[in-house]
Automatic annotation (TrEMBL):
GO terms for cellular component: cis-Golgi network; Golgi cis cisterna; Golgi cisterna membrane. Residues 25-135 form a coiled coil. GO terms for biological process: Golgi organization. Pfam families: GOLGA2L5. This is GOGA2 protein. Gene3D superfamilies: 1.10.287.1490. It comes from the Eukaryota. It comes from Tachuris rubrigastra.
Length: 139
């Protein structure tokens, strides 16, 4: 009974972790999409500035846009890596939950078999008691 409660608690904790990782995963996907949109905007700005020739201010803006693009690309790469790590963790938790579920089912099966065996033994003992009572009555 204690191990049953412990396994239920572990399953509950792992389920919460999986749900947490799934929500983090979703949030990171949204962040990646947002950064990709910003990257696209930066690339459009670069194209616009590239079309304007000669202006020192435009060159500075172009340089800033290129720096922002590089920064955004680095952030996208970092978020993609984090996303992959979270997905790997989530997969590990799911696998662990499956394993514990399997162990749980085996334990339930064993306990069920023990209960069945004990019921059969009880019936045998009850029959022996009745037989002994009959023998005592005869004596």
């Amino acid at each position: 009974s204690k191990s049953s409660e412990e396994i239920k608690q572990q399953n509950s904790e792992l389920s919460e972790k999986v749900h947490s990782l799934v929500s983090k995963n979703s949030a990171m996907k949204l962040d990646v999409e947002d950064l990709q949109k910003k990257l696209e905007m930066a690339e459009l700005m670069i194209q616009q500035f590239s079309n304007q020739a000669g202006s020192l201010d435009a060159n500075q803006q172009l340089q800033m846009a290129l720096e922002e693009k590089a920064s955004l690309e680095a952030q996208v790469a970092q978020l993609s890596e984090s996303l992959q790590q979270l997905q790997a963790e989530r997969d590990q938790y799911v696998e662990k939950l499956k394993e514990e579920g399997s162990i749980w089912q085996q334990r339930v099966q064993q306990l069920s078999e023990q209960v069945h065996t004990m019921a059969e033994e009880k019936e045998k003992h009850m029959a022996q008691i009745r037989e002994l009572e009959a023998n005592i009555t005869e004596l």
